[in-house]
Amino acid sequence: MAATHSMQTQLFINGQYVDSKSGETWKVTNPATDELITDKVQTAGEADIDAAVDAAAKAFKDASWRGIKAADRAKMMLKFADLIEAKAGEIARFETIAMGAPLSVQTFVAHSAADVFRYYAGWADKIAGEQYPDDDGTYKIVRYEPLGVCAGIGAWNASLILFAWKVAPALAAGNTFIFKTSEKSPLGVLSLGSLIKEAGFPPGVVNLVTGDGKTGQLLAQHMKIQKISFTGSGATGRKVADAANKSNMKRCTLELGGKSPAIVFEDADIENALNYCSQGFLLLSGQVCAAASRTYVQKSIADKFIAQLKERFDAAGQGMGADTLAPTTMLGPLADKIQFDRVMSYIESGKKEASLVTGGKRIGEKGQFIAPTIFKDPSENAKIYKEEIFGPVGIVKTFETEEEAIRLANDTTYGLSATLYTQSVTRALRVSAALESGTVSVNSSHSPSVQTPFGGVKQSGIGRECGKQGLMNYLEPKTIHINMKVG
Ligand code: TXE
């Protein structure tokens, strides 16, 4: 089928594709083949960000957006969702050639992004206020109002869903938006500009920009942006939060990294646990914030489980290196050479801090492929045990008792996700309550649902995305008191 959805490398500002005013561009390389995709991706500088903010501020107040019914906003969101769905494969392809995740996975992500817009379209005309009786002489009302110009900064691992998690609730609440993709995977989201227009969103309601950290900082520190939502590393999240506070105290939501535990109890369905602790963990080659990169196995089943886990990891590695655009390919490379080198440096230090069970090397001569890797029993202060690696590198350790498993799982500065495998519902509830984590999944890896809040405790972030909480992040409550003793 001829591609009817063209690749875009320009910024999408005020309803138009435009070059950056500085003319600065950068290149995107396919990490599976090391081939240059394009060297014309525009880098948004200060003048471009100012233009995007002006367009969003104007659109926010314009009758064509602020003055329409919420149900009409919802119609645009539903149309946009249908347009994404109709072109999901082509949009996904732009992601695959830029950051390497197989087309099959990125197509699923594109469909999920469409569903996120449908879910939040449903909220648009259901943002209820509150009213409290005037039994004390004061009639009390709480209204929930949009913030105005909001901005989002995405990471590269699942750009389309990160875009949807930030933009959809903001639009449902009546805001306008500027979204910056990661410089590693700009093409899928940039291609959405034509669909934004076709869906009927007025110019300036949704703006798409690209660029690296400098562009991100321009958004985080901009005095006319009321809210910033960030997904990425903890180190960068701190810079974003600092810039947000030091500029105009804009609202700030942070979805950061994780070092999530998977606890396999001896009464678990072992086949199920093996599936999720291998394919589940290896999705996107381990480049998922909620990936369970620390597997704790109860001693009584450990030897057999770890041997079988090794077999699963080795089998998964057999498919690596295949054409990432082929529908059967499930595992791809790291997002780029920077990530490849970063993960390989962790592997080299891991070889000194733990015992290598399998993997620990590159696959093939081209592309940024790393073999699925397992390290066993790292020392408790080992780099590979404490830090987010963000690649196909898992850690396994054993435990004896439930209390020990909980202590080990919670011994981290992160708290994004946790998974446990057991057939006892009472143990599942007891351990879920004890784990320090924003999300807990029982008998499966964590896959976020648009209906439930996603985000971390401790240093995995601030705030939530998805669900009603994801919507409320884009609204401000306004309290109105009326003195009923007068008039
Ligand atoms: O992330 P960065 P990177 C973690 C993971 C990964 C590490 C590095 O450990 O190995 O981060 O990945 C923009 N002000 N996660 O370098 O630097 C940048 O342009 C404002 C986990 O990609 O955090 C990009 O759009 N913005 C994460 C975005 O921030 C700045 C997924 C993320 O870049 C900026 C991705 C600045 N000073 C990485 N500097 C998850 N939670 O899923 C950079 N950016």
Automatic annotation (TrEMBL):
The keyword Oxidoreductase applies. Keywords: Oxidoreductase. The keyword RNA-binding does not apply. Belongs to the aldehyde dehydrogenase family. This is aldehyde dehydrogenase (NAD(+)). It comes from Viridothelium virens (Speckled blister lichen). Pfam families: Aldedh. Residues 17-480 form the Aldehyde dehydrogenase domain. Its EC number is 1.2.1.3. The active site is at E255. It comes from the Eukaryota.
